[in-house]
Amino acid sequence: MKLWYDAREILIGGQWRRTSDTLPVENPSTGTEMAQIARGTATDIDEAVAAAQSALHGAWGKTTAAERGRLLMRIGQMVAERADELAAIEAADVGKPLKQARADALALARYMEFYGGAADKVMGETIPYLNGYTVYTLREPHGVTGHIIPWNYPMQIIGRSVGAALAMGNACVLKPAEEACLTALAFARIAQEAGLPEGALNVVPGLGEEAGAALSAHPGINHISFTGSVHVGTLIQAAAARNVVPVTLELGGKSPQLVFNDADLDAALPFLVNAGIQNAGQTCSASSRILVERARYDEVITRMAERYKALQVGPADADLDVGPLISARQKEIVQGFIERGTDLEMAAQGRIVDQAPAGGHYVAPTLFGGVSAGHALAQQEIFGPVQVVIPFDDEGEAVQIANGTEFGLVASVWSRDGGRQMRMARALRAGQVFLNNYGAGGGVELPFGGIGKSGHGREKGFEALYGFSTLKTVAAHHG
Ligand code: ADP
Predict the structure, then answer these.
(1) Residue whose C-alpha is closest to residue 312's, from 274, 269, 367, 353
(2) Which protein residue's CA is at the shortest distance from atom 17 of ligand 1?
């Protein structure tokens, strides 16, 4: 793939420069090397943090909220204009079908627009207090924010974390994932072209245990946001704890959709399947568990199986339903899970098309039926195109199963009964609950995050602006 920039360069203090070592980037659709990226070191992270600190004392720190808003909107517009180009890069780098990659590029643009519009609307309060006092609050940036992001949705996650952090006036150090960081680099070039002052955004790709660990343990950062695995999330929280730095963690899930007897199945079906196979199931908020009231169980599994049989899996540029997994390792993990389902009823599988290159990391989407709630496939995050269907007998059991994993990111309820919708919305342990839909189209406006091992803190929406700022109370005694 031909890139319009040098992917081996990192961005520190407005300057692009090479590192001594590089890492290969694989195209997951073919298994071949498509580029080289920088292998950032702890020293590069030191310099990036120092550059971010200088930015806070320089031009970036002097921007008004309105100026930051205009700048973010300009970046968003430029991202939207280049959506096709960014989509082609992302499709090749992550392996996601082109139309999904394009949706990600447009979501990145929309995040910039949303946070651009919100930047000058974050206000403090005046607080009634003792006679002779005037008390008010100020929302201030944390300072330097670290952003460690995964490979599954680089553009969307940059949008929701870096976008909100910049809107509040923080200076960011971004460590994109070693498996897919090409659009992070492209985004930084666009932001620079749009006029983002030097040091406001620094980008250092590299290995998690090198550049990522150095960033999360750095005493010069004031907040860290991480999206990725539970294991790495705990490492990051522990590293941040040593510096008493606040963290936002988004760590995935085992999100259920609950289908009740009175559900509109025609409306539900596309969501039941798409929420499991989108981005080849490599989605934190993937719906990997479908809970069905027993009377509709046969119908649901039969109709889901029909859809599965029609799913086509192939290279990202063929723009089919499902692309490859990110790596050979991820493919091995997901196939391992499928093999652990030999005691289950395999209801259906999708088809890997003939033109799929042999070196690509393809896995046929797989639907399992008759699964018990405690089965490993119903408990562990698979991060691949695998869904399990679990029957239940009543509302109580549905809630018990839905809440019966260590995660709590997203849940949805399919039912026409308004009372039940309200009861379920309260009973389900999840950061987002959808009634008669799943994902609400991804809305950048909607606060997102988990409970339990899905993490803590909220990104997206206006709420994220509170997470990326700190509150100061000013009490004036004037008699
Ligand atoms: P996945 O399992 O989806 O690859 P990871 O949690 O391993 O997700 O990776 C998500 C991000 O965390 C990537 O940017 C990766 O480089 C980074 N990372 C991995 N290990 C560490 C670590 N020990 N410290 C900090 N960051 C890490």
Answers:
(1) 353
(2) 208
Say how many Å lie between the CA of residue 458 and the centre of ligand 1: 19
| Token digits of residue 65 | 């909220």
The answer, yes or no, to whether any atom of ligand 1 lies below 6 A from the CB of 148, is: yes
- 80 and 178: one domain? yes
- Containing domain of residue 119, as a range? 9-251+455-474
Residue 357 has φ and ψ, to the nearest 5°, of -60, 140
- Check if 250 is active-site: yes
Question: What CA–CA distances, in Å, run from 325 to 47, 51, 91, 439?
Answer: 34, 36, 12, 22
Element (H, E) at 135: strand 133-141
pLDDT digits (tens, 9 = 90+) for 223-252: 999 999 999 999 999 999 999 999 999 999
**Helices (runs of H) and strands (runs of E) counted in the chain:** 15, 22
Of 120, 116, 122, whose CA–CA distance to 70 is shortest? 116
The CB of 209 under 6 Å from ligand 1? The reply is: yes
DSSP secondary-structure letter at 159? Answer: H
Measured CA angle at 72 (ends 8, 37), to 5 deg: 10
Indicate whether 15 belongs to any domain.
yes
High-pLDDT (> 90) share of the chain, %: 99
User: pLDDT digits over 378-412, tens only?
Assistant: 999 999 999 999 999 999 999 999 999 999 999 99
Q: Is the pLDDT of residue 1 over 90?
A: no
Helix (H, G, I), strand (E, B) or coil at 439: coil
Strands (E), 343-462: 345-349, 351-352, 366-369, 386-392, 410-414, 432-435, 455-456
For residue 232 and ligand 1, the question of a CB distance below 6 A is answered with yes
Helical packing angle, 83-94 and 154-167, nearest 10°? 120
Indicate whether 334 and 208 sit together in one domain. Answer: no
Provide the number of structural domains found in the chain. Answer: 2
Smallest CA-to-CA distance from 283 within 139, 424, 156, 455 is with 156
**284 is an active site residue:** yes
